[in-house]
Amino acid sequence: MSVVKANQTASDEIEMLQKMLELAKRRKENESKEDLSVSSGGKSDGSGYEGASFNVKTFNAIAPTGLEKFPQGKYKVAGDESDLPGPPMAIMLRSHKLQVNEVKPTVRAIVRCGAGTNNIPVKEMGERGIPVFNTPGANANAVKELVVCGLLLASRGILEGANHVKNVINVEEKGEHEKIATRIEKDKAKFGGTEIQGKTIGVIGLGAIGSRVVNAALGLGMNVVGYDPVLSVDAALALPGDRMVRVTDLNDLFKVSDYISIHVPYIKGVTHHLIDAKALQICKPNVCILNFARGEIVDGAALKAGYDSKMLTGKYISDFTDEALRDDPHLIVLPHLGASTEEAEDNSAAMAAETLMDFLETGTIRNSVNFPTTILAPHVNSSGARLTIVNKNVPGALGEITSFLGSKGVNILQQINTSRDPVAYTVIDLAEIPEDPSGLQEEMAKVCPDVVSSRFIGSVFNDTLGQPGAYFYVKWAQGELQGE
Ligand SMILES: NC(=O)c1ccc[n+]([C@@H]2O[C@H](COP(=O)([O-])OP(=O)(O)OC[C@H]3O[C@@H](n4cnc5c(N)ncnc54)[C@H](O)[C@@H]3O)[C@@H](O)[C@H]2O)c1
Ligand SMILES: O=C(O)[C@H](O)COP(=O)(O)O
After folding, report:
1. Which of 116, 133, 233, 237 could form a disulfide with 111 if both were Cys (CB 3.0 to 4.6 A apart)?
2. Whether domain 140-157+193-333 has CATH 3.40.50.300
3. Strand, coil or helix: what is 85?
4. Is 288 helix (H, G, I), strand (E, B) or coil?
5. Ligand that lies nearest to the alpha carbon of residue 273, given by its number in the listed order
6. Which of 465, 462, 450, 341 is nearest to 404 (CA)?
7. Which residues form the pocket of ligand 2, taking CB atoms under 6 Å from any ligand atom?
8. DSSP character for 330?
9. CATH number of the 2-133 domain
10. Choice from 62, 133, 336 to test ligand 2 binding pocket (greatest atom count within 8 A of CB)
C-alpha cells in the first residue's frame, strides 16, 4: 500500500518519508512507556502485507466464509488469545454472553455475527467509546423458514405423531411390522390438526424477520395483522401495505390472532414479558405463540398458569427453553436453531467481517447498535492521516476539539460529526501527519474533557509504523492501567 499520492512532488515525498521515519523513531522511544500500543508482530506471511496484524478475538465458532474475508497476514483471528501475536483490537462473536471484564482496553470494536445484541453490555461499551456492530437481516431468511415450520408444528400433531410412532416401534417386537402399522394407523386420530390457511397471524416486530414472516404467511393464505410502533422507513417498504392490517394497539393484535409470532429485540424494561398474564387474558383461548426472538419476551410462568387453568389450549413453539414450562406438553422447544443454517452463518460472518474491517481501516460506522452511521470518503489531498474521536454528545464538545487542533497547527481538510444518544463520533482528515500523534492525543484528552477516546488510522499508521491504530487513546483504559 503506497502512502504517497501520485500527484505529489519528489520533495513532498522525501519530506513525508522523513516525517514517517521520525514518527517511527519516536514510537520506538515510547515503547517502554506503559500505554495502549498494540504490538502485534508485523511479520509478513507471504501475502505481501508487511505491517502489524489487526488482532481479532473470537467467541463461538464463526463460519469460515466470514473468517476468510480477513486478508491473511493483515488480520490474525483466533478464539484463544494466546494464538494472537498481540492483544485483541476487536471481538467477533455470536451468542456468547460477553462480560465487561472480557473486553480488554485494547479492544476498539465488537461485532455480533447475528441480529440480537442483548448478550453484549452495549451501554457500557458506548461509555468506553467502543462501537458494537451487528449484521441486520443476514440471518432473517433462516429464521423465517423455521417460523413457517413452527406454524406447522403448532397446527398439526407432527412432532407428537412422530414421537408416538417411534415409541410404538420401540415397544413392539421386531418383525411385527403389520401389527405396528395397524396400531399407528388407528392412533393417528390423536394427532389431527387444523390448517393454517384462512387463520390469522399476529406478527409483533416488522423488521428483517417480521416482514419476511408477513410475506410468507400471506403466501400460505393467512390473514396478517402486524404491530411495530418504531418501524423504520426501510422496513416499512418491505411490507405489503395493502394486504395486511397494521395496528397501533397490541391488544388489537392479541384479540384476533390464532397465531402470534414475535420478532422484536429483547430490551430490558421495554420488551421484557411483552406477552404477560394480562396479554394472555386478551388472547384467543387456542392461540399458538411462536417465539423465535428471545425467551425473556414471554412470561413463561403466566403461560404455564394459563395452560394449567385450561384458559389456554394452543401450543407454545419456542427457540428458547423456559424453566416454568419445562414439562408442559404444550411446549415444543428447539435449541436456538433459528439462525443455524449454512447460508445464515455464512452471510452473518461475512457481513460482520466486512463491517469490522471497514471500521478498523477507515473509521466507517455501519450497522452499529450504539454508534451513529458515519461514512467519510477519504479527502483527495489528505496525507493519509485520519483521526477518529469518540466524545460525549454535549454542547461545545466539537468546538473544543477543533479549537484544540487549530491551536496545535493541525489543518483539518474535512470532517464529519455525528451523534446518537449520549455518543458523538467525529472523523477528521488531516492535511499533514502530526509530528507527535500520541502526544497530541494525550493532550487532547486532557484539554477536551468530553473526549472519550481517539484513534489515528490510515495507511500511514498501518504500514509505516507497523502498528495499526497504535495511537489509540482511551481515557477509561488509561485510568484502569494506571490504577486510577
Ligand atoms: N432465533 C434466532 O436464531 C434468531 C435469529 C435472528 C434474530 N433473532 C431475534 O429476533 C430479533 C429480531 O430480529 P430482526 O433481524 O428482525 O431485527 P430487526 O431489527 O430487523 O427488526 C426488529 C423490529 O422490531 C421492532 N421493534 C422494536 N421494539 C419494538 C416493540 N417494543 N414493539 C414492536 N416492535 C418493536 C423494530 O422497529 C424492528 O422493526 C432479534 O433482536 C433477535 O433477538 C433470533
Ligand atoms: O440474534 C441472532 O442473530 C440469533 O439469536 C442467532 O444467534 P446465533 O448466532 O448464536 O445462532
Report:
1. 133
2. no
3. coil
4. strand
5. 1
6. 450
7. 94-95, 113-116, 139, 336, 338-340
8. T
9. 3.40.50
10. 336
